[in-house]
Amino acid sequence: MTELTAEIAAAAARLIVDEGMDWGPAKQRAARDLGMPRGALPGNDEVEDAVREHIAIFHADTQPAELRALRELAAVWMARLADFRPHLTGAVWRGTATRLSNIHLQLYCDDGKAAEIALLDRGVDFDVAETRGGKGRTVDMLVLDAPCPALQERVTICLTILDFDDLRGALKPDARGLTERGDLAALQTLLDTADE
């Protein structure tokens, strides 16, 4: 990693952790704020390392409890949405989340509208947005907010609607040997391990 890239990664990490920005916009804003060329943008692995370092230096006393609260809330929603094979992804799964982080769940559905109907049947208000799914295609994302008693605030939950077939290969580890997502059993293992 070049010095420029490392500087952008550190600035992006501050924006992600301290302001709750998403990774892509945080990298672009960090580069712009530092007057750096877009070609110097760091990769996600470099940003994740910078986020972990920033948390260790500035948030080591609060982040573990915040992460646990978000993971416990994610588990509740994964159980509620069990029919749609939910998988947790993003910062809450990877362990870099703080109270400003959104919970990202991927739902693998035979019928994309079934998740919307299930939420409506339960009286859950949500907005529909679009995001990039697997293979670069645009997919629906249901955005809702839910109370998180442990944090004493509301948390945004993003439900990305994917085809059932997208589940194949979804648990392959990345170059670092880490998975990008996990199901409820894998999340429960993370929660149990944190208690030890």
UniProtKB/TrEMBL annotation:
Domain of life of the source: Bacteria
Protein name per the record: Uncharacterized protein
UniProt organism field: Roseateles hydrophilus
